[in-house]
């Protein structure tokens, strides 16, 4: 059985847990006891190897000052480490990052936080 990983999510006013680092069509919901699949053509569902790494992410990115939570997930599929992420979490910027359809549009990138790994899907344990 795969090791448990940790996912930082935001909790909306209605109690729905959603992606922190994606907006619009790239934002995923994380209901308990479900399998959440990454949107096709993306890096995958980003998780952290340890709870401490997830906590450090939340401390570093104070822009996400809304209600946040760290949940336990079990990876589904093969993990993938990446070197760059889109710096912007907005849907339009993520479109350009993933599709690279307009070479005139510069996509700002950043390094992933320490301990980040991407999976095709995760099983939400809590």
Description of the molecule:
- A hairpin with a 5-residue loop joins strand 1 (5-11) and strand 2.
- The chain has a 5-stranded antiparallel beta sheet, covered by helices on one side. Strands 4-8 form a two-stranded antiparallel sheet. A two-stranded antiparallel sheet has the order 6-7.
- The longest helix has 10 residues, at 51-60.
- It has 2 helices and 9 strands; from the N terminus they run ββββαββαβββ.
- The two termini are 17 Å apart.
- The mean pLDDT is 88.
- It has one domain.
- 15% of the residues lie in helices and 30% in strands.
- It has 126 residues and is of the alpha+beta class.
Mean pLDDT: 88
Distance between the termini: 17 Å
Identify the overall geometry: globular
Radius of gyration: 14 Å
Beta-strand content estimate: 25-35%
Q: Widest sheet: strand order?
A: 2-1-5-9-3
How many strand segments?
A: 9
Strand and helix order: EEEEHEEHEEE
Count of individual helical segments: 2
**Helical proportion, percent range:** 10-25%
Key words describing this protein structure:
126 residues; alpha+beta; 5-stranded antiparallel β-sheet; two-stranded antiparallel ribbon; 2 helices; globular
SSE layout and pairing:
Layout: E1 5-11, E2 17-19, E3 35-37, E4 45-48, H1 51-60, E5 68-76, E6 85-86, H2 91-99, E7 109-110, E8 116-119, E9 121-124
Antiparallel strand pairs: 1-2, 1-5, 3-9, 4-8, 5-9, 6-7
């Amino acid at each position: 059985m795969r090791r448990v990983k940790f996912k930082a999510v935001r909790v909306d006013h209605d109690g729905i847990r959603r992606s922190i680092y994606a907006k619009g069509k790239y934002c995923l919901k994380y209901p308990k006891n479900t399998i959440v699949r990454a949107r096709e053509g993306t890096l995958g569902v980003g998780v952290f190897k340890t709870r401490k790494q997830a906590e450090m992410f939340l401390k570093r990115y104070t822009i996400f000052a809304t209600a946040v939570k760290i949940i336990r997930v079990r990876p589904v599929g093969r993990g993938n480490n990446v070197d760059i992420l889109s710096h912007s979490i907005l849907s339009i910027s993520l479109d350009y990052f993933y599709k690279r359809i307009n070479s005139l549009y510069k996509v700002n990138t950043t390094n992933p936080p320490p301990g980040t790994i991407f999976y095709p899907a995760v099983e939400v344990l809590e």
